[in-house]
Amino acid sequence: MKKRILEILRTERTVVSGETLSVMLGVSRVSVWKHITKLREHGYHIEANAKGYRLSEETDALFPWEFPKRASQIHFFSETGSTMDIARDLARQGCPDFTVVIADRQTKGRGRLNRVWHSADGGLYFTIVTRPLLPPVHSFRVCFAASTALAETLRELYKIDAGVKWPNDILVDGHKLSGMLSEMEAEADRVAYIAIGIGINVNNDPHVYEADAVSISQLLGRKVSRKRLLTCFLDMFETKLHGKALDNIVAEWKRYTITLNRAVKIVTIKETLEGVARDIDPTGALVLEMADGTTQKVVYGDCFIKDK
Fold first, then answer.
1. Quick one: pLDDT band at residue 209, thresholds 50, 70, 90?
2. Do 156 and 196 fall into the same domain?
3. What average pLDDT does this structure show over 9-17?
4. Both ends of the chain: CA-CA distance in Å?
5. Which pLDDT does position 114 carry in this prediction?
6. Which domain holds residue 284?
7. Would you place residue 208 in the very low, low, confident or very high pLDDT band (cuts 50, 70, 90)?
């Protein structure tokens, strides 16, 4: 009902009487008033007067009804600990493929190696549950598809020169714009689910917590719609998960990489390695050329580019 009311107000772009809404929706005027009141509580700018109702200003809301094609698969929270934790629980309960958990704010957001991901108002924080028909050894392809899709989305929507830093951070001119975290559970020889947690600096100011971070609004000098960004990214990512697109995802990812042939430092749970990033092998591991000329493969860790 909320979605239908918003569709009418957005279409009319003028005052719509309560009686008209009542007839169009097939509910009482009291019911219309209750839904309008709830929408206003949710932050929608709906003017109400003796003549009726008018949507005076758009709101960058991320409620399920704002994503008509995906509403049944969207779970929205104004504030939660971590979208990844909620997504994990939903996945274990059997939620459908491409379920999305979104939060305006996270109090316990995290990145790789349990680092804190600060989730202030204005950013975009969400986790997608995917159920690809893949063996666990190929699960990395889903993460590469997500980071590639986000880089392409940012380039198409905002003409931002977004690059991918292994394994899947998004940087612009050396400044971090987005981070990703993945969790997987497998059953025998197949993936049960892969949850991809993504944090994007959109209209927030990440400098408060991370000096080298940047947001989309800071790059463009204006605020942008999180809803449009998320809609476009989800469409792009879902397309890459279908058909045979995943078979070539490493080559596609390399088109946007800012890691290869750069001096890097890799921090893992057990050790810190330094060398030159030479390639990505068929398993998604980073091939690191050491100072003595030998190579070493790194499957998981944080990558820091040294020759910036």
1. confident
2. yes
3. 91
4. 52
5. 64
6. 263-305
7. confident
Rg (CA), the chain: 22
Task: Check which CATH number belongs to the domain holding 298 and give it.
Answer: 2.30.30.100
Whether residue 39 is found in the same domain as residue 74: no
In angstroms, what CA-CA distances link 55 with 45, 78, 227, 232?
A: 6, 22, 17, 24
Q: How far is CA 213 from CA 42, 67, 82, in A?
A: 30, 29, 21
> 101 with 232, same domain?
yes
b vs e for 230-251, b when ≥16 Cβ sit within 10 Å of the residue's Cβ? bbbbbebbbebbeeeebeebbe
The residue type of 55 is L
**Token pair for 126:** 């969400």
Q: What would the two tokens of residue 80 be?
A: 């939660």
The residue with tokens 């008509």 is: 68
| Range with the poorest average pLDDT among 65-69, 256-260, 299-303 | 299-303
- Quick: pLDDT tens for 133-150: 999 999 999 999 999 999
- Do 51 and 77 belong to one domain? no
* Measured CA distances, 41 to 36, 113, 182 (Å): 9, 38, 34
What's the Cα-to-Cα distance from 177 to each of 196, 198, 306, rounded to whole Å? 16, 11, 18
Q: Which two tokens stand for residue 91?
A: 């996945």
- 272 CB neighbour count, 10 Å cutoff: 11
Q: Are 118 and 207 in contact (CB under 8 A)?
A: no
Q: Are 103 and 80 in contact (CB under 8 A)?
A: yes
Measured distance CA(179)–CA(126) in Å, rounded: 11
Classify 76 in phi/psi space as left (phi over 0), alpha (psi -120 to 50) or beta: beta
Do 231 and 102 share a structural domain? yes
